């Protein structure tokens, strides 16, 4: 198997796994949150769709196993390996007793790195263990690679910490420049293996900085939507992007770096829009864009205009302007400058 084929199989599994885990909470999270005062059951529902996000490492492991045609034992072993090395599982103490807590979706960079190592190891073990594979595959893969991944997690997480420190510096700049830089940064981060939510909370983005980050994520979404439609992807792919699954395009982003050009240009437009309309938010809302309407709902609460004017501003800033700019940028780069063709947005799984 070539390196390219190996990478495509693995990254496609990662992209789809992220979508599967994120979609329930992206669509229903805010609905359940709003319905919590109605009945306590909705708090349980909210926790359940949140738990689905924390299952992303296991989902990715299973999908990688399917891509490489692993057997059931190998798939289960890979899923368990990614779970314990992802950072999703946190060890705490409750009433003096050891317990585990699920938190977030894990460090995607570490998940990808560990999945590469574990997949290669499983391929090397195939056909060598005979009837003992049921015992030895989990024992070797889960313990060796899983523990190794857990041990290197603090060091791999430094990548996100470094990016967070850079983002922190942006917040000290002149407001318009800050808005543009944050919008562009989060537009790129959302399509990368790095978590926008984790960085936004770690840095404590609030006010205009949070709003600019949200608009930046929205610009990436609109850019990918236009590219996906022009590339004639299946409807499900385009809908998934609109619902907030920009990481579906991680394989394309890595294979075709030219994708960053329209993303950056539309991110600049988004930063100007956020500054002009004074879009604001909180650290908890900064990494979502309009996924689950988290960004728009928080922006609405910070506005002082009449309700209809607030809704109009949100519609114009989060959807209208950046979608029009995405179409114009796409036309200029593909038809006028001929910088790339729409095949860079083709989703192949």
Tell me the series of helices and strands, N- to C-terminal. HHHHEEHHHHHHHHHHH
Instruction: Give the overall shape.
Output: globular
Distance linking N and C termini: 17 Å
- Spatial strand sequence of the major β-sheet: 1-2
**How would you classify the helix and strand content by structural class?**
mainly alpha
Query: What does the main sheet amount to?
Result: 2 strands, antiparallel
Helix content: over 70%
> What average pLDDT do the residues reach?
90
Computed over alpha carbons, the radius of gyration is: 21 Å
Number of helices: 15
Strand content: under 5%
Tally of separate domains: 2
- Tally of DSSP β-strands: 2
In the predicted model, the low-confidence regions spanning at least 5 consecutive residues are: none
How would you characterize the overall build of this protein?
The chain is mainly alpha-helical and 349 residues long. The mean pLDDT is 90. It has 2 domains: 3-156, no CATH class; 159-345, no CATH class. The two termini are 17 Å apart. It contains 15 helices and 2 strands. A two-stranded antiparallel ribbon has the order 1-2. Helix 5 (108-125) runs antiparallel to helix 6 (133-156). The chain crosses the membrane at residues 12-32, 44-69, 75-93, 105-125, 131-156, 176-202, 208-228, 235-253, 259-278, 309-333. Its main location: membrane. It comes from Streptococcus pacificus. It is found in: Cell membrane.
């Amino acid at each position: 198997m070539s390196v390219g084929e190996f990478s495509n199989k693995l990254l496609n599994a990662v992209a789809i796994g992220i979508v599967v885990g994120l979609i329930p909470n992206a669509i229903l999270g805010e609905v359940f949150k709003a319905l919590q005062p109605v009945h306590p059951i909705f708090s349980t529902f909210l926790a359940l769709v949140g738990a689905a996000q924390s299952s992303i490492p296991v989902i990715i492991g299973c999908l990688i196993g399917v891509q490489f045609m692993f057997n059931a034992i190998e798939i289960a072993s890979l899923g368990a390996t990614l779970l314990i090395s992802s950072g999703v599982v946190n060890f705490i103490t409750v009433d003096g007793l050891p317990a585990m807590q699920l938190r977030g979706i894990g460090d995607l960079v570490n998940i990808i790195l560990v999945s590469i190592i574990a997949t290669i190891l499983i391929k090397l073990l195939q056909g060598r263990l005979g009837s003992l594979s049921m015992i030895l595959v989990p024992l070797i893969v889960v313990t060796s690679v899983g523990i190794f991944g857990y041990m290197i997690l603090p060091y791999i997480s430094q990548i996100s910490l470094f990016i967070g420190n850079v983002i922190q510096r942006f917040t000290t700049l002149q407001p318009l420049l800050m808005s543009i830089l944050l919008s562009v940064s989060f537009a790129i981060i959302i399509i990368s293996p790095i978590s926008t939510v984790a960085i936004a909370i770690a840095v404590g983005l609030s006010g205009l900085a949070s709003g600019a980050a949200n608009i930046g994520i929205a610009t990436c979404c609109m850019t990918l939507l236009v590219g996906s439609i022009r590339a004639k992807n299946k409807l499900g792919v385009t809908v998934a992007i609109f619902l907030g699954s920009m990481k579906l395009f991680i394989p394309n982003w890595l294979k075709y770096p030219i994708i960053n050009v329209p993303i950056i240009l539309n991110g600049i437009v988004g930063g100007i829009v956020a500054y002009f309309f004074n879009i604001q938010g909180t650290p908890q809302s900064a990494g979502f864009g309009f996924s689950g309407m988290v960004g728009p709902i928080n922006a609405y609460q910070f506005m002082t205009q009449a309700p209809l004017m607030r809704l109009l501003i949100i519609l114009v800033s989060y959807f209208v302007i950046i979608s029009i700019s995405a179409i114009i940028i796409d036309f200029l780069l593909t038809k006028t400058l001929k910088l790339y063709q729409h095949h860079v947005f083709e989703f192949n799984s």
